[in-house]
Amino acid sequence: MHKYPELQRILFSDINFVDLKFEIIEAKDKQELNAIKQKVVHIDQDALGLDNTSYEKRRIKDQVANLHKLVDLKLNSVDVKRFTFRNEPIPNPSPQIVHKHHQQPNSQIAQPNNTLATPLVSGIQGVKYTVNSTNSHLLIADISKSIVITGSTPSSINIHNGSHSILQLNCNGPIFLHDLQHTIIILQCHQLRLHNIVNSTILVDVSNDKIIIENCSNLSVGNHPSLDLTMCRPIQVDDFNQPTARQNSHYSKVDTHADLTWIQGVNDGALQPQVIRLLP
């Protein structure tokens, strides 16, 4: 006797597998994900007792393997999110912490008085901006035609929205990047997750040699310029959208890249036209 009523109909229906995928995506914690994983295990076990064609057996096996991979990736992402808040949580920034940069040098940017809040820097356009903060967590939004580097080393970094820029970031913990395009990203961190990053180059030195991507496309992934390529371990890319693909169309590995040391010679403040032309 099978554990699920009408198991024959369920296993032959792609709708059931789609529903389970949505359950995985919507799951909020490990308890929910482990419960889903048990469902997948039961389906896999019960499928062995069905009199299926070779094609159906292979299809079910592939679907089950895909679900197991999705659950494992989501479990990893839950761990990453919890790791983000291993120190104090990132509070909602108060209005006075939001700084708009209109092609002004760092010396003209007022720093917040509330040292317990995370500064939200937004509207970085046409400048080189060095982020120096004593706060543990860094949140930056809306970057365009700019160079952004970290002068200090925070415990976590979140960046939202950007294009045609170069980001050089160092972090003691995780970095989360969202909604970037046509950007060169040079990173040193403990963990890295990319969401909706397109047409961009990612050069990384990540402690676990792994990056997680979701809804990304046309990425070039390589090692950080400071690393000796002959001594580096391969970077692993976990793609939430293609977890079982042998050949992934969303990214490619690169062994060489353009010399970017010139950005160190650019002063903070408004970028000259000849510098803007060097941006992606």
UniProtKB/TrEMBL annotation:
One protein family per Pfam: TBCC
GO biological process assignments: post-chaperonin tubulin folding pathway; tubulin complex assembly
Gene Ontology CC terms, in alphabetical order: cytoplasm
Organism domain of life: Eukaryota
C-CAP/cofactor C-like domain boundaries: 112-262
InterPro entries documented for this protein: C-CAP_CF_C-like (IPR017901), CAP/MinC_C (IPR016098), TBCC (IPR027684), Tubulin-bd_cofactor_C_dom (IPR012945)
PANTHER family: TUBULIN FOLDING COFACTOR C, TUBULIN-SPECIFIC CHAPERONE C
Family per record: Belongs to the TBCC family.
Name of protein: C-CAP/cofactor C-like domain-containing protein
Taxon lineage: Eukaryota, Fungi, Dikarya, Ascomycota, Saccharomycotina
